[in-house]
Amino acid sequence: MRARLLFAGFFLLITIPVLLMPADTGALEGLAARHLFQDMAAVDSLVVPNNTSQLRLMLPRETQASDAYEDALRGSLKLPASHPILRESGGLLVVHLPDAPTGVRVITRHIAADHGSKTIKISDEFGKTLASTRLASRTSLLPALLAILLAFLLRSTLISLSIGVIAGTILVVQSSHHTAFGYLFGHILGDKIFGDSFHLYILGFVFILSSMVALITRMGGIEGMVLSMTGMARNSRSVQAVAYALGLSIFFDDYANTIVVGNSCRPLFDRLKVSRAKLAYIVDSTAAPVAGVAVLSTWVAYQISTFAPQLPTIGLEESMGYSIFLETIPYRFYCLLAIVMVGLVIWTRRDFGPMLEAERQAAAAPTHSPNETPLDKSAVTQTTITMAEWVTPRSFNGWLPLVTMISMTAFLLFYSGAEAMTSSALAEAKAAGTTSYLRELLAHADSSESIFFGSLASFVLALLMSLGQRLIPLSDALITTTRGMGTLIKDGVMVLVLAWSIGEVCQSLGTADWLVASLQNSMAPQWLPLALFATSCFVAFATGSSWTTMAIMQPNVVLLAHRLGSQLPADSPIDSHLLLILSIGAVLEGSIFGDHCSPISDTTVLSSTASACKHIVHVRTQAPYALLVVGIALLVGYLPTVLLGPHPAISLGIGAVLLFAFLRLVGKQTHASAIH
After folding, report:
1. Surface-to-core class of residue 431, CB atoms within 10 Å of its CB (0-12 exposed, 13-18 middle, 19+ buried)
2. Among the ranges given (96-100, 165-169, 207-211, 571-575), the one the predictor scored with the smallest mean pLDDT
3. Which of 43, 58, 284, 593 has the greatest number of CB atoms lying within 10 Å of its CB?
4. DSSP track, 501-520
């Protein structure tokens, strides 16, 4: 409890200055107007179809936020970024509408800010209010801060997120006619989440993927994949390589990765006198880091869902979430280098720090590692679904559904992207080259629908394979799929729904608006990814949950990065879009690193449990390796990128060389490693 209080106190110490930081009023007004214009009801009130040649918008005064007003107008009227908006004296913005008949009439709209009621409204020339919204205040930060603080103290993702959502809902309805109950269940859950196809497809994907994994486990597919690879384990290096390869192969879910690899490889590690601490490290480092950057996994769906709903606030389609996620992968320096680090440790057969001592103890032990602990099967929840005892394991039954899921999803992504583009846009993209063509297809693809039907196709195939080969009866298959779904209700689906809910609450309160207006004049824009990375690391380490951290941090990042990106100097090595990509990736990376090192993380606990390694031994032996990777990721990855802008492949290459050099200079071989 003392440690929890220390973390909470430190968190309050670094957040109080943010709470006290003043926000630029003009910027707040501009951002509020942006949201107002993007509301379709407000847009309809601004423009009279087929009866307008010119729109005149009277601002409350000449402000520095005019750029924000202009951006909002262009987006709401579906005008290109280059479309001119004239600024006249008295804060008047004039927009000529290209498709409207000329010489008909002019519409004048007045936008006014009432600082007493903290609202901003649009009215017509007769003073009638057409649309209104309220300005963000520093109280908009409270739901996210409360959720983080309670996560420190209570160690419960569900409780902390729930209280944050409820507190935010109460703040939202204070100045409206809604009740807290009606707003939460009617507007947020009913309209925004369960009434939205994007969220439903994501939930469907998570359920179906879990059912598919459970089914191929039951029919012996996963066991077959494991057996086909463990046969190659003949010495200490090869058994570690097998565990590493299995960790990379089971990329679709971190829990499945941890349980399968830990349980299957443990006897081999004991026989060849490799420490269970080393197994736990390999398992943990190929769980979240791999699932976090895999093109298809339960993690990918969740990660996309934390930022994609906010993309429309900057003029992008929500369906572009998958393509933006793919753009972050080359800049995921920690995850990629953590995966490389495992391979280098195995290849060089060198260790350092507590891991070296654990390896030496295991090599000297008469039978197996002294760092073992009895396997607590109750903690390994995923083992409730096992291979049927009468089934013969076959790797084919595991690989074929997984390959089908990947290939079908890829096909649907490109197909939906082509369907969403006009013939002229497709021709232009083709003319620009293959890379540009594929990028444009992914940018216009419906990612949520594609991954849903891709996973559905793999599930149907797995079901047909189990029945066609008479591996398990239909009743057993149905029970297995139900159990697969059931394992996600508490830790998966409920966390997803609460994460989306707190994102919607923060958006309604204008949390990102306040952060933008507060930080845009106090922080150099290029330092934003580093600040987000550090904050996410701390929050994830203290809470033990990367998903909680993403849910709290990510909803406010999109608009913050977009607005700060507009302030980048002309000679900046990165542009506004790259700043957005780096910022989104920084939150994802920091969340995974903090989770990876945290002793209270579920994946850390499961890694030590499945490997039958003492938990404290796993935490102590893994920490130096993770800290080395994150240090090099910052030194050659994030810092050079924001300051110099090199290609990420260069940074990753230098990082891999530095890791290799460190292991050669500092690391030492155990006696067993030297022999084998």
Report:
1. exposed
2. 96-100
3. 284
4. HHHHHHHHHTHHHHHHHHHT
